[in-house]
Amino acid sequence: MNKFVIVFLAFLMVSSLTPLSFGERLGPADAPLGVLRDFVISVKFLDAYFGTEGNKIEVAPGDKNVPFTVVMSNVGTQDITGIKGKLSLPAAYQSPSGRGVAMMADNDQKASAGNTFALTFFVDVSELAPIKDYSGTVDLTFSRLRESGERSENFPFTFKLTGDSIVNLRPISGPLTSIINNNVIIEISNAGSAPLNNVDIVLQNDQTSVASTSSSVTNLENVIFDQTHWDVGTIKPQSSVTFSLKVFVPETIKNEPLHLPMTISYYDAHGELETVTRVTDFYINGLVDPSIYGVKVIDLSGKQTVIGEILNEGNSDGLFGFVTLKPSINIFQICQI
User: Fold this and answer.
1) Which residues contact residue 84 at a Cβ distance below 8 angstroms, ignoring those fewer than 6 apart?
2) CATH of 167-285, one of 3.40.50.10490, 2.60.40.10, 2.40.40.10, 3.90.550.60
3) pTM
4) How much is the mean pLDDT over the chain?
5) CATH of domain 41-160
6) Can you tell me whether residue 136 is helix, strand or coil?
7) Distance separating alpha carbons of residues 218 and 206, to the nearest angstrom
8) Which of 79, 105, 155, 303 has the fewest C-beta atoms under 10 angstroms from its C-beta?
9) Is the pLDDT of residue 319 over 90?
10) Residue ranges of the domains in the chain?
11) DSSP per-residue codes, 244-261
12) CA angle at residue 200 from 196 to 204, to 5 degrees?
């Protein structure tokens, strides 16, 4: 009886360990690879992109020594350490140390079970690399805590060379003039190789924004704008769009620059929301607005002479003014009276 019990228990023990010992598939036959598969895995690939952990960046052909990050997750039940990776990319990419040099990275931190970790490599991009999707692989080696030896995994992935976007603002219209409504046209351009998507522009002329900037832009407090918000859509690489507004400059501001700080929000090639600030500069001229009044004809030394007064209704001095008399029907009739 005792022998029978021992044999039966031994049979149960072998049966329960058999799937792990002989590599049989765990779980349902249709379970996706990487969740339940022939061999119980410890690491799962999540993402690969240009940038650092948690911060994607745009990269263009010809960029050098740019970070390239591979993000993975420890899906096992034990912590792993000694994480090292070797990156393999197409011929358009190479190590900053030279062609043929392996692109290596390591992570000195312990990757706890259930947490993510990242390896950041550095890459040179060829000037001839097309902007498109590429394939690559990363070879990973690591050790489990309380376990001797190293484990290795190989992960194929795809990534995109996005190109980069370069945002600039410049005024198309000329200088502004005090005391009048000025029609202002501003151009926003993309000098890069990646599009600017859903571009939104906001003029920062509120009290909070003005107070946070330098004293050189405090004249914004007294300038009146008919609008401060524009949605200009998508700006393709090497192209530009314009937007317009009306600006009234009060009498007290003249002969000085006007700086218009604008916040530009857009979605980059990664689909990430980016916000930058650009400043458009204008020069404010004073207004010279002469008018003539009190015109009359007097007799001076036997000759009829036209006299009058000139009034400058603007806020800037007018120099070297000249008055020219031109014949007209009305003036002729007046002279005949």
Assistant:
1) 104, 105, 106, 107, 140, 141, 142
2) 2.60.40.10
3) 0.73
4) 83
5) 2.60.40.10
6) strand
7) 11
8) 303
9) no
10) 1-39, 41-160, 167-285, 290-336
11) EEEEE--TT--SEEEEEE
12) 130
